[in-house]
Design a protein that fits this description.
The protein has about 140 residues and is of the alpha+beta class. The protein has a single domain, classed as predicted glycosyltransferase like domains (Thrombin, subunit H), CATH 2.40.10. The protein has 2 helices and 7 strands, in the order αβββββββα. It has a 6-stranded antiparallel barrel. The longest helix is centred in the C-terminal third of the chain and has 23 residues. The radius of gyration is 15 Å and the shape is globular. The N terminus is likely disordered.
């Protein structure tokens, strides 16, 4: 089971360095460094994004990936049609509300060359759309 101490508090989530946008996309994940879990090393799995920011992503996964694990993610966007590749480290993990699912907080440690500016533009557009939806709902 996941240690509740790994879950960020509401205050911590409110103090994020970068704005986050809710966004669902398919993600191919290749695990590299998984300390203490030999059976997970070099494993490829498929996840879904829950939200994203300039510096990280929150994934929903069927597999609990330990904090500190290093992985490569290929985020598939349909609008625009693009694949963004990032290397990241798992910073926190906790049980999702859906049984058997886990939420993973991933911090980017490297983005594929040339994609960084495109990723920033992609995230900025989603954050802006979300803010406009919220403003029109008020």
């Amino acid at each position: 089971m996941t240690d509740a101490a790994e879950k960020p508090s509401t205050d911590e989530m409110d103090r994020r360095r970068h704005a986050r946008a809710a966004y669902e996309a398919d993600v191919r994940v290749k695990l590299y460094t998984v300390s203490g879990y030999v059976d997970l090393a070099d494993k490829v799995l498929y996840c879904c994004t829950a939200d994203l920011s300039e510096s990280g992503i929150r994934l929903s996964s069927d597999i609990e990936i330990p904090v500190g694990s290093v992985l490569e993610m290929s985020v598939v966007s349909e609008d625009p049609a693009k694949v963004f590749t990032h290397r990241g480290e798992v910073r926190w993990v906790f049980d999702d509300i859906d049984p058997g699912k886990f939420l993973l907080g991933i911090e980017f440690i490297q983005s594929s060359s040339g994609h960084r500016d495109e990723w920033l533009e992609f995230v900025s557009a989603r954050v802006k759309r979300e803010a406009e939806k919220q403003a029109s709902a008020d």
